[in-house]
Amino acid sequence: MGNERSLEQIRLIADRFVEWQTPYGRPDPDRCPFVTQGKCISTKFHSPTFMAIGLYRAYAATDEPIYKAAADRYITFYLACMRQPPVGGQRQDYPSYPYQYGMALAGYELFRQHNPQEDSMDGKAAAEETLKKLLADPQLMAAMKTKLDQRPSADGATQ
Q: Model's pTM, two decimal places?
């Protein structure tokens, strides 16, 4: 009886996550209660990975294919939105915060576990993993800055 009740609760939440999604994988601001309108603001990008993780777990518990399909769309949307860090510092309207790369990688790991044949986004995930490592290594960042400072400028002088 307890397992049946647990599955009922899992389905209740997973069905909402499916209902709150646009056909292309974004949390729908008209149906999802915690999405705020605006350019690339955090409420668009905090939730897709977490909802995908929940949906992958719901799929594992129920074998309901719509849960896996929705999880795949959330991750695909999230990865498609990630950008290189902007020149001049972080912007709030630009999805490239370090935590977003970590969330993208966590989601992509699950995506690949559920879609082992799909490797079309491996390059993007590898680039994000490399960037995450660079951002976390102060010695490497200092060495890169030194190299950049030594490169010649357009007029031939060292910067």
A: 0.70
